[in-house]
Amino acid sequence: MADKARLTVGTEAYDLPLVVGTENERAVDIAQLRAESGLITLDEGYGNTGSCQSRITFIDGERGILRYRGYPIEQLAEHSTFLETAYLIIFGELPNEQQFREFRELISEHMFIHEAMRHHFEGFPPNAPPMAILSAMINTLGCFEPQITGPEDEENFTAAAARIISKVRTIAAASYKKAIGDPIIYPRFDLSYTGNFLHMMFCRPNKLCEPDPLIERALDQIFILHADHEQNCSTSTVRMVASSQANLYASVAAGVCALWGPLHGGANVAVINMLEAIRQSGESVESFVTKVKDKRAHSRLMGFGHRVYKNYDPRAKFLKASTDAVLNKLGIHDPLLDIAVQLESVALRDPYFIERKLYPNVDFYSGIIMRAAGIPLDMFTVLFAIGRMPGWIANWREVHTDPHGRIYRPRQIYTGPTARDYVPMSERR
Ligand code: ACO
User: Fold this and answer.
1) Residue whose CA is at the smallest distance from ligand 1 atom 36
2) Cβ-based neighbour number of residue 142 at 10 Å
3) Nearest Cα to 82, choosing from 169, 2, 158, 3?
4) SS3 state of residue 419
5) Per the count of CB atoms within 10 A, which of 58, 103, 344, 391 is most buried?
6) What is the CA(245)–ligand 1 centre distance, in A?
7) Is 333 in the active site?
8) Residue 360 φ/ψ, nearest 5 degrees
């Protein structure tokens, strides 16, 4: 197989090295192209740009495959826990018993937030978006951790990773309690990671409660399914910030902001809003699907389509099955699930969606499980962020430990005005 690609521009030819990944994905390395030819590559939206080489997550979008560190997502969602998967993603291998015990102990040790941080919640207005609070509070966490170090300090890095993963769930639950005017609930040492999150979300000082094991497992699986997804918008943001050698807290706080948007993590909220609007209006799913195909309507079938998957998103496949199972076991009939199933069926038979290879993505069904668990709508994307934390941390570490790492700095093709002289205000028309 050739190990070079040849680019011909006019009468000049340039040989460009090929890079091949462990799953035989091939890339043309254009790093020297500008130096040799004066040319840059242009790929708006990075649809065909490899920004890094990474050992963390593999996706084959054509075949609907997702693996963390080589392990298929279906096996992890079925057999692993979120904490074990987090360890795998961050450190590269599944933990043995001792490694896992130590990691869990670190998570337990760091489950509380500094008492002084509680006052920060007072500064937000009652209806502040939880994603804004989460991002601000993660940066605030950094202010309380003067020993933030680089990942070359293995012990401190492990503690920092455990601290963020643990505290982010405490912050998330506290922001919810603040929003509804309830007292903040302290975490418990005897509960699992996800059980503790449910405890802090739904218990009250005068209402002791135990997390429902079914809901606890379903949410834990949602966290596993969201734990990493290679170079998506928020992870690329984390890597971009990390490349300036910004600390872990600052970098993942930026990831939270990137995740917030409705085309990314915010899509799980948009899906429920869309399903609810269809339900309330009584509009048929056929008519809704016709509308989203019309570009002038500027609306999309939320929870459908993906930059990388041109097949069924394996996370959506898993979630569709578990949504059915969870709702059945809880004895819940959610009319939004009926609408979602009908929408999927109509869309997957429609030439518009077939030609563009648009399938349900992870957000299409995850919201229905979260609703069944009693998670309020504005917390959906926060749950996505809790789940994505291990992936962001692992990517931050990869950037920081890359011996050839450089600051990320794309180029552009300038299309603005050419050079012109300053005109005093009095002479401007
Ligand atoms: N509904 C209707 N049409 C769609 C949809 C959709 N959900 N998604 C893509 N299309 C159409 C586009 O209009 C475009 O059509 P055209 O070729 O006639 O112009 C074509 O399919 C390709 O779409 P792009 O926008 O170019 O695809 P891109 O890779 O840039 O976007 C994205 C991917 C953002 C996920 C898009 O499919 C979308 O907006 N989906 C809905 C939002 C959503 O569910 N986001 C969650 C993604 S998963 C995640 O981030 C966790």
Assistant:
1) 305
2) 19
3) 169
4) coil
5) 391
6) 33
7) no
8) -60, 140
